[in-house]
Amino acid sequence: MKKKQIIPFILAITFLIFIVIKITNHNKERRIAQTINESLSIADYQKNIPAKNSSYGKYDCITPVFKGIGIAKLNGKSGLIDTLSLQEITPIKYDVVWSMKDGIAEVELNKKYGFVDSTGKELTALEYDFVVGFENGLSNVKKDDKWGYIDKRGEVVIPIKYQMAWSFKGNTGAVKLENKWGFINKLGAFVIPLQFDYVDRDFDPVLAEVTKDGKTFFINRKGKCVKNCP
Description:
With 230 residues, this protein is an alpha+beta fold. The strands form five sheets. Strands 7-8-9-10 form a four-stranded antiparallel β-sheet, with no helix packed on it. Strands 11-12-13-14 form a four-stranded antiparallel β-sheet, with no helix packed on it. It has one helix at residues 3-47, and strands at 61-66, 69-74, 77-82, 96-101, 104-109, 112-117, 130-131, 138-143, 146-151, 156-162, 164-165, 173-177, 180-184, 190-196, 198-200, 208-212, 215-219, 225-227. The chain has three domains: 1-49; 51-127, Thrombin, subunit H (Beta Barrel), CATH 2.40.10; 130-230, Lipocalin. The termini are far apart. It has one helix and 18 strands.
């Protein structure tokens, strides 16, 4: 390439490099400015965030649990509340309101347990030493160191006489009586006799883990061993 041709070429390359540097710096400045603006926006937003409890009215906390219903806490007590109107569904009188399922919540007062529904009606007297949430229409409850089952009307449908009772899985529940475990149906009749030393909960969904004579294995809903048989 001749000398006269080289000089314009060098000038052109130099100009292109200058343009690239200029664009790069401009974009960098824009990114910095954008970051600063975003930071300022976040800071401004944080300054205007309402106080934590300002939307709770007089309540210390409201936790939504079921279709427009929340658990409200005030001065160490709990109750159910309409989360939109802040109208109390139950008095704020319970020591604890546990989570709500299918419109029914477990409540505790003075170390006694019961249930309330979504209208605030107490389905049971607060008379139980412990309750477990409803499964398949039944709740296993403890009273005077014995276990049984109630339905969603609060009525005892399987006598409170067992040493232990697991929640119903399908149509069967595992119970302990006379230091042995077996399985009952919703009428309280045994479908698998008392014979096991332990039952690890219940059928999930078709097998149950049981222990007998020091051996742990799995049975089906007919009581027949199908896995890890001794």
